[in-house]
Amino acid sequence: MEDAVRPYFVRRGSAPARRLASRSMNSGGFHLQTTDHEKLHRCYPVLDQLPADLLRRVRQEARLVKAPAGQELFYDGSPCTAYPMLIEGTIRATKSGPDGQEILLYHLQPGESCVITVVALLGETPYPARAVVETELSLFAVPRNLFLELVLKSPPFRVFVFQFLSIRMAHLMALIDDVAFRRVDQRLASHLLLHKGPITVTHQTLADSLGTTREVVSRILESFQQSGVLRLGRKRIQILNRNALERVHRAQES
User: Fold this and answer.
1) Containing domain of residue 16, as a range?
2) Do 145 and 194 reside in the same domain of the chain?
Protein backbone atom coordinates (compact mmCIF):
# COMPACT_ATOMS: atom_id res chain seq x y z
CA MET A 1 0.00 0.00 0.00
CA GLU A 2 3.03 2.25 0.32
CA ASP A 3 2.93 3.37 -3.33
CA ALA A 4 -0.65 4.60 -2.90
CA VAL A 5 0.49 7.17 -0.36
CA ARG A 6 3.97 8.10 -1.56
CA PRO A 7 3.04 10.70 -4.25
CA TYR A 8 1.20 12.89 -1.76
CA PHE A 9 4.37 13.78 0.10
CA VAL A 10 7.57 15.09 -1.41
CA ARG A 11 10.87 15.89 0.24
CA ARG A 12 10.62 19.63 -0.21
CA GLY A 13 8.35 20.20 2.84
CA SER A 14 9.23 21.35 6.35
CA ALA A 15 10.88 18.99 8.84
CA PRO A 16 7.67 18.36 10.86
CA ALA A 17 5.78 17.68 7.65
CA ARG A 18 8.48 15.27 6.50
CA ARG A 19 8.25 13.35 9.77
CA LEU A 20 4.49 13.00 9.33
CA ALA A 21 5.00 12.02 5.70
CA SER A 22 7.55 9.40 6.70
CA ARG A 23 5.08 7.89 9.14
CA SER A 24 2.42 7.69 6.44
CA MET A 25 4.72 6.24 3.79
CA ASN A 26 6.62 3.75 5.91
CA SER A 27 3.52 2.39 7.59
CA GLY A 28 1.51 2.29 4.37
CA GLY A 29 -0.74 5.08 5.63
CA PHE A 30 -3.34 5.06 8.39
CA HIS A 31 -5.81 2.19 8.13
CA LEU A 32 -9.47 3.01 7.66
CA GLN A 33 -11.37 3.40 10.94
CA THR A 34 -15.16 3.44 11.35
CA THR A 35 -15.33 7.22 11.78
CA ASP A 36 -13.02 7.71 8.79
CA HIS A 37 -15.22 5.42 6.73
CA GLU A 38 -18.31 7.43 7.71
CA LYS A 39 -16.62 10.71 6.73
CA LEU A 40 -15.57 9.23 3.41
CA HIS A 41 -19.14 8.19 2.59
CA ARG A 42 -20.56 11.54 3.72
CA CYS A 43 -18.14 13.41 1.46
CA TYR A 44 -18.42 10.97 -1.45
CA PRO A 45 -21.95 9.49 -1.45
CA VAL A 46 -21.22 8.07 -4.91
CA LEU A 47 -19.37 5.28 -3.05
CA ASP A 48 -22.75 3.98 -1.87
CA GLN A 49 -23.50 3.12 -5.50
CA LEU A 50 -20.41 0.97 -6.01
CA PRO A 51 -20.71 -2.79 -6.52
CA ALA A 52 -20.03 -4.65 -3.28
CA ASP A 53 -16.67 -6.03 -4.44
CA LEU A 54 -15.35 -2.59 -5.42
CA LEU A 55 -16.57 -0.99 -2.21
CA ARG A 56 -14.81 -3.70 -0.23
CA ARG A 57 -11.58 -3.00 -2.11
CA VAL A 58 -11.85 0.73 -1.43
CA ARG A 59 -12.17 -0.02 2.29
CA GLN A 60 -9.20 -2.39 2.17
CA GLU A 61 -6.82 -0.52 -0.15
CA ALA A 62 -7.48 3.19 0.41
CA ARG A 63 -5.05 4.67 2.91
CA LEU A 64 -5.58 7.68 5.12
CA VAL A 65 -3.08 10.51 4.62
CA LYS A 66 -2.81 13.52 6.93
CA ALA A 67 -0.82 16.68 6.24
CA PRO A 68 -0.41 20.10 7.90
CA ALA A 69 -1.01 23.46 6.26
CA GLY A 70 1.88 24.45 4.01
CA GLN A 71 2.89 20.89 3.10
CA GLU A 72 3.61 20.42 -0.60
CA LEU A 73 1.66 17.37 -1.77
CA PHE A 74 3.02 17.15 -5.29
CA TYR A 75 4.82 19.32 -7.81
CA ASP A 76 5.01 19.71 -11.57
CA GLY A 77 6.75 16.60 -12.91
CA SER A 78 6.39 14.40 -9.82
CA PRO A 79 4.94 10.88 -10.28
CA CYS A 80 1.23 10.26 -9.79
CA THR A 81 0.08 6.83 -8.59
CA ALA A 82 -3.04 7.49 -6.50
CA TYR A 83 -6.37 9.32 -6.55
CA PRO A 84 -7.15 11.59 -3.55
CA MET A 85 -10.54 11.56 -1.85
CA LEU A 86 -10.44 14.58 0.45
CA ILE A 87 -12.50 14.41 3.66
CA GLU A 88 -11.08 17.36 5.64
CA GLY A 89 -9.16 20.53 4.78
CA THR A 90 -8.42 22.29 1.50
CA ILE A 91 -5.79 21.96 -1.21
CA ARG A 92 -4.49 24.76 -3.41
CA ALA A 93 -3.54 23.77 -6.98
CA THR A 94 -1.25 26.12 -8.91
CA LYS A 95 0.82 26.33 -12.08
CA SER A 96 4.20 28.07 -12.18
CA GLY A 97 5.94 29.87 -15.02
CA PRO A 98 9.68 29.78 -15.82
CA ASP A 99 10.19 32.82 -13.57
CA GLY A 100 8.54 31.07 -10.61
CA GLN A 101 5.39 33.19 -10.76
CA GLU A 102 2.32 31.13 -9.86
CA ILE A 103 -1.30 31.28 -10.91
CA LEU A 104 -4.09 29.68 -8.92
CA LEU A 105 -5.88 26.92 -10.85
CA TYR A 106 -8.44 25.93 -8.23
CA HIS A 107 -9.05 24.98 -4.60
CA LEU A 108 -9.97 21.38 -3.83
CA GLN A 109 -12.63 20.97 -1.13
CA PRO A 110 -13.86 17.79 0.61
CA GLY A 111 -16.07 15.72 -1.66
CA GLU A 112 -14.55 17.07 -4.87
CA SER A 113 -12.47 15.38 -7.55
CA CYS A 114 -8.91 16.53 -8.28
CA VAL A 115 -8.81 16.88 -12.06
CA ILE A 116 -5.03 17.36 -12.14
CA THR A 117 -4.71 13.89 -10.65
CA VAL A 118 -7.37 12.47 -12.98
CA VAL A 119 -5.50 13.77 -16.03
CA ALA A 120 -2.21 12.33 -14.78
CA LEU A 121 -3.69 8.94 -13.84
CA LEU A 122 -5.65 8.46 -17.06
CA GLY A 123 -2.76 9.64 -19.21
CA GLU A 124 -0.10 7.79 -17.20
CA THR A 125 1.86 11.04 -16.98
CA PRO A 126 3.51 12.98 -14.14
CA TYR A 127 1.60 15.72 -12.36
CA PRO A 128 1.28 18.79 -14.63
CA ALA A 129 0.98 21.26 -11.73
CA ARG A 130 1.69 21.81 -8.02
CA ALA A 131 -0.52 21.33 -4.97
CA VAL A 132 -0.05 22.62 -1.44
CA VAL A 133 -2.13 22.01 1.68
CA GLU A 134 -3.98 25.23 2.48
CA THR A 135 -5.68 24.04 5.66
CA GLU A 136 -4.76 20.88 7.57
CA LEU A 137 -6.16 17.92 5.71
CA SER A 138 -7.13 14.28 5.77
CA LEU A 139 -7.58 12.37 2.53
CA PHE A 140 -7.75 8.81 1.30
CA ALA A 141 -5.30 7.79 -1.41
CA VAL A 142 -6.86 5.26 -3.79
CA PRO A 143 -4.23 3.30 -5.78
CA ARG A 144 -4.20 3.99 -9.52
CA ASN A 145 -5.26 0.49 -10.57
CA LEU A 146 -8.26 0.58 -8.26
CA PHE A 147 -9.20 4.08 -9.44
CA LEU A 148 -9.16 2.87 -13.06
CA GLU A 149 -11.38 -0.08 -12.14
CA LEU A 150 -13.84 2.26 -10.42
CA VAL A 151 -14.01 4.42 -13.54
CA LEU A 152 -14.38 1.38 -15.81
CA LYS A 153 -16.86 -0.69 -13.80
CA SER A 154 -19.00 1.89 -11.98
CA PRO A 155 -21.06 4.24 -14.20
CA PRO A 156 -22.03 6.51 -11.25
CA PHE A 157 -18.38 6.91 -10.23
CA ARG A 158 -17.40 7.53 -13.86
CA VAL A 159 -20.05 10.25 -14.16
CA PHE A 160 -18.83 11.81 -10.90
CA VAL A 161 -15.23 11.98 -12.14
CA PHE A 162 -16.04 13.34 -15.58
CA GLN A 163 -18.59 15.85 -14.34
CA PHE A 164 -15.89 17.43 -12.19
CA LEU A 165 -13.50 17.27 -15.12
CA SER A 166 -16.03 19.19 -17.22
CA ILE A 167 -16.65 21.78 -14.49
CA ARG A 168 -12.94 22.40 -13.94
CA MET A 169 -12.26 22.61 -17.68
CA ALA A 170 -14.91 25.32 -18.01
CA HIS A 171 -13.33 27.17 -15.08
CA LEU A 172 -9.83 26.87 -16.58
CA MET A 173 -11.05 28.11 -19.98
CA ALA A 174 -12.51 31.16 -18.24
CA LEU A 175 -9.21 31.62 -16.41
CA ILE A 176 -7.27 31.53 -19.69
CA ASP A 177 -9.68 34.09 -21.14
CA ASP A 178 -9.14 36.34 -18.12
CA VAL A 179 -5.36 36.13 -18.19
CA ALA A 180 -5.09 36.54 -21.96
CA PHE A 181 -7.70 39.20 -22.66
CA ARG A 182 -8.42 41.23 -19.52
CA ARG A 183 -6.28 43.79 -17.72
CA VAL A 184 -5.08 43.01 -14.21
CA ASP A 185 -7.14 45.86 -12.72
CA GLN A 186 -10.30 44.38 -14.28
CA ARG A 187 -9.50 40.92 -12.94
CA LEU A 188 -8.70 42.32 -9.50
CA ALA A 189 -11.98 44.27 -9.45
CA SER A 190 -13.88 41.11 -10.42
CA HIS A 191 -12.17 39.18 -7.63
CA LEU A 192 -12.94 41.83 -5.00
CA LEU A 193 -16.59 42.03 -6.06
CA LEU A 194 -17.06 38.39 -5.10
CA HIS A 195 -16.95 39.51 -1.46
CA LYS A 196 -19.85 41.23 0.31
CA GLY A 197 -18.10 42.56 3.41
CA PRO A 198 -14.55 43.47 4.46
CA ILE A 199 -11.96 41.22 2.82
CA THR A 200 -9.19 39.68 4.91
CA VAL A 201 -6.38 38.82 2.52
CA THR A 202 -2.75 39.66 1.78
CA HIS A 203 -1.59 41.35 -1.40
CA GLN A 204 0.55 38.29 -2.14
CA THR A 205 -2.46 35.97 -1.93
CA LEU A 206 -4.36 38.20 -4.36
CA ALA A 207 -1.36 38.23 -6.69
CA ASP A 208 -1.13 34.42 -6.61
CA SER A 209 -4.83 34.13 -7.39
CA LEU A 210 -4.52 36.46 -10.38
CA GLY A 211 -1.22 35.15 -11.71
CA THR A 212 0.64 38.42 -11.26
CA THR A 213 3.10 39.98 -8.80
CA ARG A 214 2.48 41.49 -5.38
CA GLU A 215 3.90 44.82 -6.58
CA VAL A 216 1.34 45.06 -9.39
CA VAL A 217 -1.55 44.24 -7.05
CA SER A 218 -0.34 46.73 -4.43
CA ARG A 219 -0.03 49.47 -7.05
CA ILE A 220 -3.58 48.88 -8.33
CA LEU A 221 -5.03 48.73 -4.81
CA GLU A 222 -3.31 52.01 -3.92
CA SER A 223 -4.83 53.54 -7.05
CA PHE A 224 -8.28 52.26 -6.06
CA GLN A 225 -7.81 53.72 -2.57
CA GLN A 226 -6.76 57.12 -3.92
CA SER A 227 -9.89 57.12 -6.09
CA GLY A 228 -12.09 56.43 -3.06
CA VAL A 229 -13.09 52.97 -4.30
CA LEU A 230 -11.80 51.13 -1.24
CA ARG A 231 -9.87 51.48 2.01
CA LEU A 232 -6.75 49.45 2.77
CA GLY A 233 -5.72 48.12 6.17
CA ARG A 234 -3.38 45.45 7.46
CA LYS A 235 -4.42 42.30 5.55
CA ARG A 236 -7.81 43.96 5.14
CA ILE A 237 -9.68 45.60 2.26
CA GLN A 238 -12.99 47.42 2.65
CA ILE A 239 -14.93 48.30 -0.49
CA LEU A 240 -16.38 51.83 -0.30
CA ASN A 241 -17.79 52.24 -3.80
CA ARG A 242 -19.02 49.01 -5.41
CA ASN A 243 -20.44 50.89 -8.41
CA ALA A 244 -17.02 52.27 -9.29
CA LEU A 245 -15.50 48.82 -8.90
CA GLU A 246 -18.25 47.41 -11.15
CA ARG A 247 -17.31 49.94 -13.84
CA VAL A 248 -13.69 48.75 -13.74
CA HIS A 249 -14.88 45.14 -13.84
CA ARG A 250 -17.02 45.80 -16.95
CA ALA A 251 -14.50 48.02 -18.75
CA GLN A 252 -13.49 46.86 -22.23
CA GLU A 253 -10.01 47.03 -23.65
CA SER A 254 -9.59 50.02 -25.94
Assistant:
1) 2-178
2) no
